[in-house]
Every structure is written in C-alpha cells, then in structure tokens.
Design a protein that fits this description.
With 291 residues, the chain is an all-alpha fold. The chain contains 9 helices and 2 strands; from the N terminus they run ααααααββααα. Helices cover 62% and strands 1% of the residues. The protein is extended.
Length: 291
Amino acid sequence: MAIGQPTSTMTEIYEQAQSRIPATISLPSQWLKSYEDFVIKNASSVSQMESALRSLTYIIPGRFRESELASETLHTSTLLLSLYHSSLLRRHFPSPFPPSPQTRYTTFHTARSRLYSNSAIILQTIQYTELLCEMFFKRRGGDKARWRLVVVLEVIKAVCRTIMFWITGKKMVVEGAGAERPSIPESASSTTEEVEGEHGPLISRDGGGASVQEARSKEWPMPRTGMKLPVLPTQDGESITDFLSKRVISADDIKAAHLLLRKISSIQGQAAEMMWILRPVVYALAMQRLQ
C-alpha cells in the first residue's frame, strides 16, 4: 500500500499537467486574437499609435549606452508592427477609394500564388530588419561578420525577387511588393455605406469625408431608374473640371490586374532584369573582398 501510494500520486500529477498543456498552448493564440480585435475596433487610431512609437526614436539617442542599437530596434519593431497591421486591416476594411495600380497588381499575385506572397513577405521583412542586423553583427564580430551577413541577406533578397520574376510570367519586379494599407474612415465601426453612396463614392480621392451626410441629402434621384447622382460642386473654389477629373476612369482602372505590366519577351530584357536583381549581390561581394 505504501509502495503504490507514490505511484498513484505521480500519476495524478502527470494527468493534471497533461490536462493543463492544451490550455497553456492556446494562450498565445488567445492573446493574438485579443490584440487583433483591439486593432480592428481602434482601426482609425492605428496610424497614430505607430507614429507615437516612432517618435520615441527621437528621444532615445544619447539617453543611455548603445542607444543607437535600441533606437534602431524600436524603429524596426514599429515597421514590422505596421506591416502586420496593414495585412490585418486589408482583410477587414476594404478601401472606400479605388485601389492604386500597384495595389491591384500585388494583390492579384498574392492571392494567386502562395509562393509569391511568402517571397514578398520575406523580402519586406529583410528590408525592414537588415540595418538592425547589420549593426548587431558589426558590434559582435566587426566588419568581417557584418559584410558576411550583408552578402547572405542580399542573396536571399535576390532569390525572392527571382521567384517573383518567374511567377509573374517574366514581368518586371515591382518595388514595394506588399499592397498598400487601405484608408480607414474616422469611425472604424461605421459601415461602408457612410463612406460610399448607393452607386459610387461620394467623397473624392483627396479625402474630405466630413460632409458626407450633407452631400447625400443633396443627391438628385433620377426619375426612371431611381439612381442618385452626387451634388455638383458649388463652393470651396472647386470647378466642374476638377470635380469630373477626379472621377475619370483611366486605362489602368479598367485593365485586368495581371495586364498592368507587360511581359518581358526579349532575351536582352530578361537578362537586364536578372542583372538588376543580382546587382546588389555583386556589390556586396565586392565590398566583402575589399574588407
């Protein structure tokens, strides 16, 4: 009896620990979900929070030892946080304005190819963190370790750009591979109907959403179709030409997303694009040899 009692006690402890493991593992995902909900509910204030964090980089230098490394760490962390916020807001808040050609192009290939999306994310992450990594390696291993790291990072970036070049059908690699952050209205809880009219945007591309309700009250309904036309400008110095030019559809607006860039069909053009992709690697290798 005395011999079996410790065994049963150990079994109970093991069972209790095993029952707590799933709850412990699920904690990070719960925290992440709570943070995502916080960002979505305060979407209009996300840019202000990021600007406040960036402003700390002007206060840190000179306050304590290795302040340059701390300042760059904060700046890099803010950039990565901004990248995460942008991807989160794009999923929950469609932009009330027509997207730019770059956003349409990158969004199309990101949704079409998982490999393109991962390559774009890796490329942006390296671009945001390469200076911090370079400073850290220089402090720990000197210029030799620094240039060795630079060569490795440039090779990874060249591989990512090459993958994007071939996935897009041998088209020019777009600088800034990620899509732009959508414009968030003043109140994130408001619906898109407050920003858009029944048959098109009521506010222009230059902002000015303060008088949306007033503009909607002055809409003119067409008798036969019931469609509503926005009120024409009568004040604030805006002419009819300026008003209509903001609503003109260009050739890029009606062109399919994958046709916004032409395919590089010539061998010389493809070779030039590959030379542009490999150019930083050659420069980094040359600087490493000079060191």
